[in-house]
Amino acid sequence: MNFIIGGLMFLLCAFIGFKIANNYKRKLQFITDFKTLLDYLETNILYLQDTLEKLIRDKMESFHSDFKNFLENYLQNLQNSTEFLEKWLKEQNLIDTETAEIIKKFMLELGRQDSTAQLQSIIQTNEILAKHTERAQGEQKKGYMSARLGIMGGLALFIIII
Questions:
Q1: Is 38 contained in some domain?
Q2: What is the pLDDT along the chain (162 residues), one digit of tens a residue?
Q3: Would residue 154 count as lying in a domain?
Q4: Which of 19, 65, 77, 122 has a CB 3.0–4.6 Å from the CB of 84, allowing a cystine?
Q5: Does residue 136 contact residue 28 with C-beta atoms inside 8 Å?
Q6: Range of the domain at 133
Q7: How far apart are alpha carbons 92 and 95 in whole angstroms?
């Protein structure tokens, strides 16, 4: 009986550790995908005459699910993007508020300027997000530590219970 309880405690601790690590990983992926979109737009905005919606849709399949869902919802709510982004900012729990504000601000300006001003906005947003990416990478290292601590804590509980 103690063996089963110890095993369940180990699994629970390991699951919690991996869940925390996965959240940090998803956060980094979201920010990295956004920066990839910025780089893609920066490269193509002056040279292609396609609409921003088409540019985004062409690149969308290369993103991870969280960012892909964000873009799909953004494109579906393009007519009332201000309301959508306000709602997204309040409801999202993946990235920190400061980073979410930067993304919201950029997405609100997307397509509302001429190509030169849009390009400048992309460059500025990319520069600002550089430190947020570094912070998310540091947090992902903490996530790896959470996974290890979950396993170690689970093993410790398993040994104590047995």
A1: yes
A2: 888 888 888 888 889 989 988 889 999 999 999 999 998 988 887 776 677 788 888 888 899 999 999 999 998 888 888 898 899 988 888 888 899 999 999 998 887 777 788 888 888 999 989 888 888 888 888 888 888 888 888 888 888 887
A3: no
A4: 77
A5: yes
A6: 27-148
A7: 7
